[in-house]
Amino acid sequence: MVPALAVASALRAEGAGVEFIGGERAEAELVPTAGYPLQKISVEGMSRTNPLLAVRALGRAAAAVRRARSLLEELAPDAVLGGGGYITGPVGLAAVTLRIPLVLSEADSHLGLTNQMLAPFARRVCLSFPIAGRRGPRYRVTGRPVFAPQEDREAARARYGIAMGETCLIVFGGSLGARSINLAAVEAFAGEHPGTDTGGQGAAETDLDAGMRAGAPHVLHVTGRRDYPELAGRELPAGYDLREYLDAEEFAAALAAADLVVARAGGSVFEIAAHGRPAILVPYPHAAADHQTRNARWMSAAGAAIVIPDRELTAPRLAREVAALLSDRPRLEAMASASKGLARPRAAMDVADELLGAAA
Q1: If phi over 0 gives left and psi between -120 and 50 gives alpha, with beta otherwise, what is residue 239?
Q2: Intra-chain end-to-end CA distance of the chain, in Å
Q3: pLDDT tens, 257-278?
């Protein structure tokens, strides 16, 4: 939803009216909160393992196309933007059959199934990353649309009670959270891990633990909804700020306040880059087409991030990597500069321009 809402904001700034068609997931809360009308259709993802669920999904998709056609006839839009995912399928197909100009936006480093199917009928396909085989006038690399970064670092730190001279680490996964990161972070920075790791490094890790405690960073840990009740029940030290969820504005402020980010490597890598933050990325190993690993390598190849495979993530490893970076200010600054160099601040406006051009 972040790219879609960012483009909507850019369109609104140009005087365009925007309406959303979506389902019952994140958009049901985020779109009305952002002040946009939301029309709902009922559709679900296609199961690749359960034939009965696949048949049910096809039936719902057929009904959703009829519903989408009815909505588009009523709304009479000048153009339609598909943000990828299974909601885009029936709405995009309805737009094509009604001869309404269609623009697609792909947020990941591979073209999703829905966008693959609709791409031949789209006026333009806006890509977050260059994708092999997707070149020519139909495709344009715009970057992933995100909201404008929070620029006032002092105000952002004041919002979270972080002194300007204090080191801040932000940890997050997705809306549900990332359990491996959540557990490793609490053990590494809340003083709960045993200080041991593989390879007979117990004494070295114990020394590291002492060093981390002596100069412990302020930790802003966004757990997601799934793990928050469990982690909130633990005894956490002062300076360990555990949050279940941050909205878009709060999240931007958290990135502005941070010195270092520990996160998954989904679409948030563009928000990290927009704020020019160095990162330790732990890609989700089961992401479609392993796109999170590709996202993480995109940042690491530029010198903006360190990548830890999920299977290799431990509390001592995380504590060691964080301590090494926070104690090496020149390296941290170089990574921050590299991160900022990856930002695409015009992405939302570029996608909006494509949509306005198609409408014209």
Answers
A1: left
A2: 25
A3: 999 999 999 989 999 999 999 9
* Local structure of residue 138 (DSSP, 8 states): T
Residue type, 348: A
What does 4-59 look like in DSSP terms, one character per residue?
HHHHHHHHHHTT----EEE-SSTHHHHHHHTT--EEE----PPPSS-HHHHHHHHH
d(CA 295, CA 242): 26
Q: Could you give the CA distance from residue 36 to residue 185 in angstroms, rounded to a whole number?
A: 37
Angle between the N-to-C axes of helices 329-341 and 315-326, in degrees from 0 to 180, rounded to the nearest 10: 90
**Can you tell me which residue has the tokens 């003083």?**
191
Q: Are 6 and 348 in contact (CB under 8 A)?
A: yes
| Residue 302, both tokens | 């530029």
Residue 358 DSSP class: H
Instruction: List phi, psi (to 5°) of 268.
Output: -65, -15
Neighbours of 51 (CB within 10 A): 9
The encoded tokens of residue 82 equal 């598909």
Q: Which two tokens stand for residue 317?
A: 């490893």
**Global pTM value:** 0.85
Amino acid letter for position 245: Y
- Tell the residue number behind the tokens 């959540």, with chain if given: 182
Report the candidate in 2, 114, 19, 94 with the shortest Cα–Cα distance to residue 355: 19
8 Å CB contact between 215 and 325: no
Q: With the C-alpha atoms ordered 298, 301, 305, 310, is the resulting torsion angle positive or negative?
A: positive
Cα 163 from Cα 250, distance rounded (Å) = 17
Identify whether the C-beta of residue 100 lies closer than 8 Å to the C-beta of residue 79: yes
218 sits in which H/E element:
strand 218-222
Q: What is the pLDDT of residues 247-260, one digit of tens each?
A: 889 999 999 999 99
Phi-psi region of 105 (alpha: psi -120 to 50; beta: other; left: phi over 0): beta
Distance, in Å, from the CA atom of 122 to the CA atom of 207, rounded to the nearest integer, reads 58
324 residue type, one letter:
A
Cα(72)–Cα(2) distance, rounded to whole angstroms? 23
